[in-house]
Amino acid sequence: MAIGATMHTFEVQLADVDRGVYEDLSLRVAQHPSETGMYMVTRVLAYCLELEEGITFSAGGVSTGEEPAILVKDLTGRITAWIEVGAPDAQRLHLGSKRADRTAVYTHRDPAKLLSAWRGKTIHQSEDIVVRSFEPKFIDAAAQALTRRNTMSVSVTEGQIYLELNGTSMETQISEHEIQK
Fold first, then answer.
1. Rounded to the nearest 5°, which phi and psi values hold at 5?
2. CA 44/CA 7 separation, integer angstroms
């Protein structure tokens, strides 16, 4: 018998000063059995930092061959944003960049290794893909604070993210990286 996903809830207060986005969110997030806490925290943060009308988590919780971890679709069903989490391969980025108006990657992994793995590979409009990373200690601390029911405050200002998760406060700079051809 296969092990099913574990459901987590997040009550989020989001204040993204950099984008002018202020929202209270109630999220139900399925954690796939193969998904680490660090990946799930990165996925939830990516959702918050990309929040716009039409945003959804993929059905399985983790990216599949057909969908990234997070999608944004317009009212007609057209994909407007393809948002990967973790360490997607160059072929996935190429596909996502061709399917969507914009593509982004959020990672808790070593960005230098990711960028090196993509160097020299064919990635559609790679110069337009936004790659953001978080300090591993920040993501690790957030993963340690996770429970099944979570209260979370996310504030972003001048590229700095301030996170309070279940009473644990932490902060880090959101680093942006360019894909080299």
1. -70, 150
2. 13
Q: Are strands 175-177 and 130-133 parallel, antiparallel or unpaired?
A: antiparallel
User: What stretches of the chain show up as alpha helix (H) in DSSP?
Assistant: 37-49, 90-99, 111-118, 136-145
Counting Cβ atoms within 10 Å, is residue 157 exposed (0-12), middle (13-18) or buried (19+)?
A: exposed
Side chain identity at residue 86, one-letter code:
G
Which residues fall within 8 angstroms of residue 44, CB to CB, at 6 or more apart? 10, 12, 27, 29, 152
**With a threshold of 0.90, does the pTM exceed it?**
yes
Q: CA 127: distance to chain centroid?
A: 19
10 Å CB burial of residue 73 (0-12, 13-18, 19+) is middle
d(CA 86, CA 72): 18
pLDDT tens-digit series, residues 45-93:
999 999 999 999 987 555 556 789 999 999 999 999 999 999 999 999 9
Hey, CA dihedral for 58, 24, 20, 74, is it positive or negative? positive
Are 92 and 67 spatial neighbours (Cβ–Cβ below 8 Å)? Answer: no
